[in-house]
Request: fold
Amino acid sequence: MSEKPIGSTWLKQNYQLPNVKLSHESYLGTRSKIEVLQDGTIIETFQKAQYTLKADNPLNHFEFALKYDDVQMNFFQAVLKRIPVKDIVEFIESAPNFKYSRKIGFWYEFLTGKLLPIEDRPNINYVDLIDSKRYFTGVVVKNSRWRINNYLLGDVGFCPTIKRTNVIMKALELDYPEMLRELSKNYSAEILNRANNYLYKKETRSSYQIEKEEPTPERIERFVSLLSNAGKEDVSDLLSEESLVMLQNQIVDPRFAATDFRDFQNYIGQTTWNYDEIIHYVCPPPEFLSDLMKDLSNTAIKMKGVNPIVRATAIAFGFVFIHPFEDGNGRIHRFLIHDFLSRDNFLPSGMIIPVSAHMVNNIKLYDDALEAYSKPLMLLIKYTKNEKQKLIVLNASEVEGYYRFPDLTTQTEYLCKVIDASISHDLPNELNFLQNYDEAKELMKQRVDMPDKLIDSFIRFTHQNNGIFPKRRRNTFHMLKDDEIKALQSIFQDVFTLDK
Reply:
């Protein structure tokens, strides 16, 4: 006998939601088993003898989903909108104090904004809405109507979900702040100061490079100034429309400076060689922006005390997926990563880690993290273009929940990996390079007493050519003898291979 869908899988099929991507699919079969697909989807089979439902009632399947499947609020919302209110009321009233009846009542009212014609629950014990062992949780909000402990990270305007996966929990076991403090002990104050000054500019250039832009010196200095002051502004002020508009104005070309959040439909795409357009992501319709941005700020406040990497992911990636401006969203998104890491004292004062530099050097992984969110949306959304080639979303109400309730687990795993690589590999390499640079420069000066700028050029050219002085640069050093060139090259190789 073939396996039978149950829980969220049954609800998806019953309500004909084929394009919804479930992160956990459940089936009934002859034996229990779990399979993990390449995209991370978990396929779990439950033994029929233990889990057969009394009837194929949608609310029985919803109860099963709450017990065993993943919390996917956008999917829950789509399902609850399709179940008749009288059926929900009847199901709850059949066992009014049962915790899953109360959870269904809470989810219906939270996700639809409609009040069920049911009296508040009596004075009974509170139950947790979600499992804090499986999900990251925020400050508890007690819902007295359903006697529910609401630990969600946000509110109905914007509420991300982040699972406690093995990848994330393994990363969070490491004491990165202490690792940074220990790392700083191995270098002089001068090296650390120079490294920070250098990394601020490198981080700025990398952030622009991701957008395939070459910033002017003035814009570099403005972005460096922003990074150096990260984490100092109050959260509600930072994420206000006025503050974010000012931030956008500082980092983009003045011709594309915004005066407020966008009031038009935006999207991300590319034009092919034959002028066809490939659309990768359709941003939230402008009518959703006000609530999204207001509750993004509320989520940031509610998540105070949650692990800094998790909080930084929720706000920074939440921001870039909301995409409130026509230009500058990516750079603000990466700035927000630094801001919240600094704000939550993840970084020692004045220190920066090369997050954007790692991203630009591993751009496919960054793109994959963004597409993990955008690709499922593109299966759901329907759109067209009018005669002026402006994009119009045709099913805004159907995809609204996808924007409001993002699952940011994949993005959190990604940022954990970026931060780990930045702290364990990239930052030590930068510090070692500067230390080696100083040593090589001093030894070269002892061998050939020439101007600092010329030594700097020699080191730079040799470093760019993997430790071999390039012959095409010989004319720049026409005043040096061949044996001096060879000696300087040997000094470089001796010093810069010590840490390999």
About this structure: The first strand starts at residue 4 and ends at 6. The mean pLDDT is 91.
